C-alpha cells in the first residue's frame, strides 16, 4: 500500500508524456517497471482518478499516449512501430486477447487491421480471443460485462482465421484446455490391451478400460451403434451393445463421450486383418468432451536443470526455492511453416476446410459468388431420364442439411447428374462449392427454403472424412384432420402420430414396369381425433415395417417426413423414395402425443379422416355440406389457390357443355395412361412400354356450372364425367359416329340444367405466360333434397341465433 501511494504522488507530476515515464525498480539489472499517465492526478492522491487511466508496463513496452474517447484504450502505435522495425528478427507474432478493443465499433476493427498490416503481411500473426471479443451479458462469458460492445467477436471471427475444429468456440482457448483435461480421462494403452487380449478371461476380470467414443453412427433401424474407440493414441472400430442404444437416443452419450468397457470380445473381419471390438457390457463415464483426445500432445522430453547463472539471467533468490526447470532447446518452426505442412498433408476436403470459410446454408443467396458449405445428404433421389422438345436427358436431386438443420434441395442435370450421382451417398458429409442458387419453384420444392441449388459439372464435391455431425431433421407437422386441404396438390406433408395397427407385407405389381415391390399399410392417430392410413413401400415396408409390427402392442409414436397425399379412401398417405420414418423420436410433439394417448386417446372413439369424403362416393353426402360456398366466392378472388390447393363444396347447375371440345383422350387399357399411335398399327403405351392393338377412351372435359351468384368453367375427369353425361366416352363416341352429330349434341344437352353437388379444388396454373385459376371437380353427387333442406334449416338457425 505504501508503494502504491508513493507511485501515485510521483505520478502527479508526470503529465501526458512518454519521454518521462516513472521508473520504479527494486534492484539493478532487473526488469524495469515503468508507469505513464496522460493527465495530472489532482486532489487527494488516494481517491482521485485519471481521466483515462495510468498505465504500468513491465519491460520496454511503450504506448503512444493518444487520448481516445468512449473509453477506447490507447492504440499501441509505438509498439507496432517497434515490431515493424524488428521484423527481421521475428518469426511469429502472438496477440493474445483484446485484439482491437473495438467495443462494438467496426471502424476500430478496420483501423486495427490497417495498423498491423505491415506485420501480418510479413510474418504469421496469430490471435486468441479475449474479453473484448467475447464478453456480453447472457452470452455465456465468464464476466458477463459489456466489454465487447455487443460485437461478441464477429469481426475477429471473420477477419482472423483460427485453425480450430469448431471456429465458433475459439474463445479463451476452450478446445485446447478441453483436450488437455480430456487426456487425463482415458486409460493409456487401452486399445493395445484389447488387441493383445481379444476377449475377457475366464474369471471375467477386466482392467479399468476407459475409451473415448468417436464417429458415433447408427446402424440399420437405430438399435445398434458403431463408433471408433480411442485411448488418445490408438483407435479401433467398435460396436455398442444393443441395450446401450437407449443411452444414445436419450442424449446421455454423444460423440466425443467416454465409456468404461466392462466386457468385450474382439472379432476378425473377413477378407482382411482388421479387428472389430464388440462391446458386450459398458457403462457411461462422460456424456461428451470438448475435443478429441490426442495422446501425442502429452509427450514431453525429460527436463534438465539449468542454473540461472549459466544463462546470465538474474532472478530473485529465495530460501528453499526449487531450481529453474527448462526443456531442452528444440527446433522452432514458424506458424506459417506449421500451417503449410498441415495443409500439405491433409486430404483435399480438409485443405478446403482449412483454407476457406464454411458458410451456413441460411446465409446463401443468388447474388453471392464464392462460397463453401458443409452439409450432410439427408435425402437422395433416383437418377431419372426425361424427354422433351430439346431431346433426352437425365436428372437427380438431393436434399442437403447443415449443422444448424437448414435444408436446401440441389438438382443436377445430364453430365453433372452422371458425375455426381455415384459420389453423393446418403448420410455422408460433403464440402460443396461452385454451385448456383435461384428462387425455388414453390410447385416442386420439397424443403423449407426460398432458394434451390443447381450444380453443374464444374461444381466441387468433396467428402468430409471423419465428420460426425448429425443435423436434426426439420419437421413441419400437419394435423391429420387438416389433410383434406392437401388432396390433389403437390405439397408433401410430415405426420406425427400413434400407431394403431400394422398390416402384413403385401407384394404389389407396379404398372409402369411390372416390377413387384413390397407394401405395408399402417394406421396412425393424433389428438385431432382422426386416423389415417399410410402405405409404406420398399425398405420402409420390410425393415421398418417389421419393427413396427413387433412394437404395435405398445402403441409406438412415429414421425414420418415427406408423405404424398392422395384421395384414395377419401384421404390417405403414401411414402415416396425420399420419405423417412422415425420410431419413438425424441421430439416434444411425440412425447405430448404419447402422453395424450396413454391418458385419454386410447379410450377415445377415433374416426378415419377420409370417412367424410369416402362416404360421399358411397352415397353419403356429409362432405358435400362442409365448406359450402357460392361460385362468386371463388371467381371474385383470382389469386385463390396460389400457395396451395383449397377445397370447397358447391350446389350448382351444369349450364353448358361445348360439343366441339376434345372431350376424351386415348388411354391404355392396362394403366389408363395416354397412348400414341404406333408406327404401322396399334397404340404405344409409354407407361407399360408395350404396343396394344386396342385402346379405350377416357373423358377429360370442361363444362360451365352456374348458381345464383355467377358461373365458372370447371374441369371434369372420367369417373365423374361418366355420371354427368350418363355414358362412357366410348359409348358417346359410338353415338357420334353411328347416330350422327345431332344425337351426339342431344346427349350433351340432356346433361345440362341438372343440379349437382360438387366438391371442387381451386389451384393456379400457368397458360401462355399468364396465371389462371383452375377449378377441378373432385367429387360429384346428385342433390338429395331431404338432406339439402335439412342443411338449409341448420344454416337459417345459425343466422337467427346471431
UniProtKB/TrEMBL annotation:
Coiled coil: none annotated. It is found in: Nucleus. One of its GO terms (molecular function) is DNA binding. InterPro entries: Calcineurin-like_PHP (IPR004843), Euk_RPA1_DBD_C (IPR047192), Metallo-depent_PP-like (IPR029052), NA-bd_OB-fold (IPR012340), NA-bd_OB_tRNA (IPR004365), Rep_factor-A_C (IPR013955), Rep_factor-A_N (IPR007199), REPA_OB_2 (IPR031657). It comes from the Eukaryota. Residues 372-455 form the OB domain. The keyword Zinc-finger applies. Residues 186-286 form the Replication factor-A protein 1 N-terminal domain. Residues 491-584 form the Replication protein A OB domain. Signal peptide: none annotated. GO terms for biological process: DNA recombination; DNA repair; DNA replication. Residues 647-792 form the Replication factor A C-terminal domain. Pfam families: Metallophos (PF00149), Rep-A_N (PF04057), Rep_fac-A_C (PF08646), REPA_OB_2 (PF16900), tRNA_anti-codon (PF01336). Keywords: DNA damage, DNA recombination, DNA repair, DNA replication, DNA-binding, Metal-binding, Nucleus, Zinc, Zinc-finger. Residues 62-147 form the Calcineurin-like phosphoesterase domain. GO terms for cellular component: nucleus. The keyword DNA damage applies. CDD domains: RPA1_DBD_A (cd04474), RPA1_DBD_B (cd04475), RPA1_DBD_C (cd04476). Its main location: nucleus. Component of the replication protein A complex (RPA) required for DNA recombination, repair and replication. The activity of RPA is mediated by single-stranded DNA binding and protein interactions. Probably involved in repair of double-strand DNA breaks (DSBs) induced by genotoxic stresses. Heterotrimer of RPA1, RPA2 and RPA3 (canonical replication protein A complex). Belongs to the replication factor A protein 1 family. This is Replication protein A subunit. It comes from Miscanthus lutarioriparius.
Amino acid at each position: 500500500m505504501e508503494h502504491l501511494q508513493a507511485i501515485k504522488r510521483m505520478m502527479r507530476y508526470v503529465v501526458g508524456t512518454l519521454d518521462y515515464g516513472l521508473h520504479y525498480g527494486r534492484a539493478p539489472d532487473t526488469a524495469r517497471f515503468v508507469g505513464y499517465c496522460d493527465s495530472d492526478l489532482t486532489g487527494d492522491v488516494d481517491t482521485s482518478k485519471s481521466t483515462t487511466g495510468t498505465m504500468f508496463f513491465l519491460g520496454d513496452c511503450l504506448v503512444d499516449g493518444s487520448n481516445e474517447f468512449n473509453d477506447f484504450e490507447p492504440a499501441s502505435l509505438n509498439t507496432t512501430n517497434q515490431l515493424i522495425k524488428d521484423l527481421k528478427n521475428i518469426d511469429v507474432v502472438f496477440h493474445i486477447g483484446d485484439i482491437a478493443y473495438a467495443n462494438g465499433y467496426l471502424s476500430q476493427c478496420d483501423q486495427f487491421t490497417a495498423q498491423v498490416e505491415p506485420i501480418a503481411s510479413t510474418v504469421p500473426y496469430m490471435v486468441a480471443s479475449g474479453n473484448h471479443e467475447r464478453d456480453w451479458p447472457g452470452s455465456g462469458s465468464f464476466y458477463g460485462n459489456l466489454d465487447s460492445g455487443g460485437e461478441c467477436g464477429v469481426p475477429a471471427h471473420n477477419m482472423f482465421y483460427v485453425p480450430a475444429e469448431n471456429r465458433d468456440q475459439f474463445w479463451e482457448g476452450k478446445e485446447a484446455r478441453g483436450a488437455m483435461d480430456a487426456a487425463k480421462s482415458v486409460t493409456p494403452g487401452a486399445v493395445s490391451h484389447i488387441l493383445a487380449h481379444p476377449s475377457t478371461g475366464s474369471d471375467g476380470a477386466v482392467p479399468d478400460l476407459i475409451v473415448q467414443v468417436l464417429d458415433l453412427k447408427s446402424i440399420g433401424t437405430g438399435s445398434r451403434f458403431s463408433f471408433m474407440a480411442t485411448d488418445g493414441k490408438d483407435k479401433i472400430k467398435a460396436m455398442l451393445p444393443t441395450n446401450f442404444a437407449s443411452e444414445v437416443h436419450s442424449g446421455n452419450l454423444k460423440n466425443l463421450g467416454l465409456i468404461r468397457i466392462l466386457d468385450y470380445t474382439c472379432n476378425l473381419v473377413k477378407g482382411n486383418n482388421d479387428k472389430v471390438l464388440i462391446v458386450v457390457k459398458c457403462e457411461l463415464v462422460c456424456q461428451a468432451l470438448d475435443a478429441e483426445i490426442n495422446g501425442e500432445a502429452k509427450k514431453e522430453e525429460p527436463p534438465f536443470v539449468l542454473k540461472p547463472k549459466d544463462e546470465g539471467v538474474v532472478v530473485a533468490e529465495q530460501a528453499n526455492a526449487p531450481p529453474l526447470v527448462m526443456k531442452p532447446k528444440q527446433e522452432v518452426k514458424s506458424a506459417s511453416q506449421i500451417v503449410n505442412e498441415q495443409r500439405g498433408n491433409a486430404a483435399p476436403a480438409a485443405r478446403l476446410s482449412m483454407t476457406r470459410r464454411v458458410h451456413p446454408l441460411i446465409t446463401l443467396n443468388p447474388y453471392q459468388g464464392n462460397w463453401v458449405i458443409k452439409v450432410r445428404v439427408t435425402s437422395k433421389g433416383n437418377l431419372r431420364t426425361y424427354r422433351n422438345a430439346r431431346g433426352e436427358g437425365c436428372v437427380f436431386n438431393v436434399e442437403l442439411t447443415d449443422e444448424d438443420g437448414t435444408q436446401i434441395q440441389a438438382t443436377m442435370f445430364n453430365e453433372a447428374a452422371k458425375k455426381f450421382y455415384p459420389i453423393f451417398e446418403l448420410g455422408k458429409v460433403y464440402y460443396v462449392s461452385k454451385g448456383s442458387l435461384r428462387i425455388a419453384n414453390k410447385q416442386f420444392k420439397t424443403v423449407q427454403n426460398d432458394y434451390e441449388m443447381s450444380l453443374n459439372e464444374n461444381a466441387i464435391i468433396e467428402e468430409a472424412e471423419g465428420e460426425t455431425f448429425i443435423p436434426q431433421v426439420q419437421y413441419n407437422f400437419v394435423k391429420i384432420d387438416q389433410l383434406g386441404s392437401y388432396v390433389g396438390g403437390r405439397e408433401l406433408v410430415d405426420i406425427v402420430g400413434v400407431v394403431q395397427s400394422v398390416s402384413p407385407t403385401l407384394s404389389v405389381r407396379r404398372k409402369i414396369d411390372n416390377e413387384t415391390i413390397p407394401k405395408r399399410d399402417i394406421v396412425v392417430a393424433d389428438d385431432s381425433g382422426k386416423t389415417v392410413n399410410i402405405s409404406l413401400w420398399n425398405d420402409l415396408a420390410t425393415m421398418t415395417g417389421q419393427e413396427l409390427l413387433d412394437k404395435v402392442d405398445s402403441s409406438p409414436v412415429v414421425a414420418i417426413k415427406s408423405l404424398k397425399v392422395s384421395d384414395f379412401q377419401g384421404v390417405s398417405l403414401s411414402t415416396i423414395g425420399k420419405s423417412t420414418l422415425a420410431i419413438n423420436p425424441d421430439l416434444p410433439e411425440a412425447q405430448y402425443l404419447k402422453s395424450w394417448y396413454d391418458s385419454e386417446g386410447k379410450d377415445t372413439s377415433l374416426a378415419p379422416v377420409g370417412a367424410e369424403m369416402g362416404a360421399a362416393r358411397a352415397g353419403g353426402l356429409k362432405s358435400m355440406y362442409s365448406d359450402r360456398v357460392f361460385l362468386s366466392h371463388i371467381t371474385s378472388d383470382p389469386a385463390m389457390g396460389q400457395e396451395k390447393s383449397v377445397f370447397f363444396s358447391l350446389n350448382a347447375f351444369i349450364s353448358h357443355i361445348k360439343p366441339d371440345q376434345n372431350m376424351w383422350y386415348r388411354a391404355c387399357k392396362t394403366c389408363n395412361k395416354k397412348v400414341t399411335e404406333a408406327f404401322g398399327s396399334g397404340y404405344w403405351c409409354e407407361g407399360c412400354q408395350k404396343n396394344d392393338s386396342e385402346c379405350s377412351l377416357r373423358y377429360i372435359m370442361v363444362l360451365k356450372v352456374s348458381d345464383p351468384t355467377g358461373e365458372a368453367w370447371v374441369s371434369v375427369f372420367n369417373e365423374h364425367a361418366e355420371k354427368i353425361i350418363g355414358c362412357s366416352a366410348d359409348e358417346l363416341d359410338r353415338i357420334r359416329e353411328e347416330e350422327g352429330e345431332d344425337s351426339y349434341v342431344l346427349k350433351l344437352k340432356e346433361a345440362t340444367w341438372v343440379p349437382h353437388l360438387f366438391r371442387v379444388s381451386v389451384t393456379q396454373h400457368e397458360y401462355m405466360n399468364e396465371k389462371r385459376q383452375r377449378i377441378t371437380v373432385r367429387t360429384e353427387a346428385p342433390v338429395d333434397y331431404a338432406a339439402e333442406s335439412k342443411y338449409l334449416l341448420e344454416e337459417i338457425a345459425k343466422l337467427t341465433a346471431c
